[in-house]
Design a protein that fits this description.
The protein has helices at 14-28, 39-49, 92-109, 125-133, 170-179, 190-204, 244-258, 273-276; strands spanning 3-7, 56-61, 66-75, 78-81, 85-86, 114-121, 136-147, 160-164, 208-212, 215-224, 230-237, 265-268, 286-296. Helix content is 32%, strand content 30%. The protein is of the alpha+beta class and 299 residues long. The protein has two domains: 3-143, Gcn5-related N-acetyltransferase (GNAT) (Aminopeptidase, 3-Layer(aba) Sandwich), CATH 3.40.630; 149-283, Aminopeptidase (3-Layer(aba) Sandwich), CATH 3.40.630.30. A hairpin with a 5-residue loop joins strand 10 (215-224) and strand 11 (230-237). Strands 1, 2, 3, 4, 5, 6, 7, 8, 9, 10, 11, 12 and 13 form a 13-stranded mixed sheet that branches. The longest helix has 18 residues, at 92-109.
Length: 299
C-alpha cells in the first residue's frame, strides 16, 4: 500500500478526518470516560493552542482516504506526544513512522522539554503496550467518577453567597485565578489567561462565583463535550477557603438542572483532589474510568 504523509493544512478538512479516526477507536474501545469528538471542537482547540502545522501529522491512502494521525502539544517545558490513532486496517509501520517523525521533530525543536504521553484509559491495552515498548514509564494515574446531581447534598458552610458571573466580574475572576495554587501558573501569559476566561468561560454564560463577606473566594463552570456527563471546567479557590468547594458542587448541580443539563457530573482527580477525595463517599460517586500517563526518561 502506498501511503501519503502530510502535516496539518488549514481549511482542508483534516479535522473531520481526525474526528473519524478517533471516534472509530472509541467505538471499538468503549470502556472509557472519553466521548466522541467533532471536527468543530478539534478546529477550536487548534486555534486556541496555536499549534504549528508540523505538530499535527496525517497518513492517507493514495486515493486520499485517511489512515491515521498524530499530534503533539507544547506546554511550557513539557512536550505532550500523542499516540498515532488509526483505523483498524492501518499498517503498523504507518503508525510507527508517524510517531517517530513527530517525535524526532519535537525533540529537535524543543530539546530541553520533558516528554509525556497520555492520558489513556487503563483498559486500552494496545496504547499502553505501544508506549511501554518505546521506553516510557508510568508517571501518573487519574481517577474519573460520575455522580448523580440529586446526590449533591453537602452541608453548606454559613456566611457564603453565590451568583452567575458576567463580564463585569472578569477582573475579580482573573485575580482569583492568580491566587489559586493550581491556576497561578496554568497560563503562559496574562493575555492567555484573560482570553480563556473572557472568550471561553464567560462567553458560555455558566460561570459560578462564590463569595464570603463580599470577597470572591471560589469559582467554577460546567463543561460538556469531552467526557461522559459534564465536568468542572476549572476550579479556583482562594487559599484558606477550601470549604467553599462544597458550595461549588451544590451550585453547579443546581445551575445545570436549571438550564436543562440532565447528565451526571464528572469529577476527576486532576485538581483539588485533597479537597474532593473526602467527599466522594458522601456524594455516592461511582468510579467509571482509570487513566494513565507516561513519561520518557532521557538517557
Amino acid at each position: 500500500m502506498k501511503v501519503i504523509y502530510k502535516t496539518y493544512e488549514p481549511n482542508s478538512g483534516f479535522e473531520e478526518f481526525q474526528a473519524q479516526i478517533y471516534n472509530d477507536h472509541l467505538r471499538r474501545n468503549p470502556q472509557t470516560s472519553f466521548t466522541p469528538v467533532t471536527a468543530a471542537k478539534i478546529k477550536e482547540r487548534f486555534a486556541f493552542e496555536k499549534k504549528g502545522p508540523k505538530l499535527i501529522r496525517y497518513a492517507f491512502r493514495e486515493d486520499g482516504t485517511p489512515l491515521a494521525y498524530i499530534q503533539a502539544s507544547i506546554d511550557g517545558k513539557t512536550t505532550w506526544i500523542g499516540y498515532p490513532w488509526a483505523f483498524e486496517d492501518c499498517p503498523k509501520e504507518t503508525q510507527e513512522r508517524l510517531y517517530q517523525e513527530l517525535f524526532d521533530y519535537a525533540t529537535e525543536k524543543y530539546p530541553e522539554n520533558k516528554i509525556v504521553i497520555g492520558y489513556f484509559s487503563k483498559s486500552w491495552d494496545e496504547q499502553i503496550q505501544f508506549v511501554l515498548d518505546k521506553g516510557y514509564i508510568l508517571k501518573d494515574t487519574a481517577y474519573f467518577y460520575t455522580l448523580d446531581p440529586d446526590n449533591v447534598k453537602l452541608k453548606i458552610p454559613e456566611g457564603y453567597s453565590s451568583k452567575i458571573g458576567t463580564i463585569d466580574d472578569l477582573k475579580a475572576v482573573l485575580e482569583l485565578s492568580k491566587a489559586d495554587s493550581d491556576l497561578r501558573n496554568a497560563f503562559p501569559s496574562d493575555e492567555a489567561r484573560e482570553h480563556y476566561f473572557k472568550n471561553r468561560v464567560l462567553a458560555d454564560g455558566n460561570l459560578i462565583l462564590v463569595y464570603k463577606d463580599n470577597i470572591l473566594v471560589a469559582a467554577t463552570a460546567p463543561l460538556r463535550g469531552f467526557y461522559v456527563g459534564y465536568m468542572f471546567r476549572f476550579t479556583a479557590i482562594r487559599p484558606g477557603f477550601e470549604e467553599a468547594w462544597k458550595i461549588l458542587a451544590v451550585k453547579i448541580a443546581k445551575h445545570c438542572k436549571e438550564i436543562g443539563w440532565t447528565e451526571k457530573i464528572m469529577i476527576t482527580s486532576f485538581e483539588k483532589w485533597d479537597i474532593i477525595k473526602p467527599q466522594i463517599k458522601k456524594l455516592k460517586a461511582e468510579l467509571i474510568d482509570t487513566q494513565v500517563q507516561y513519561k520518557l526518561e532521557k538517557t
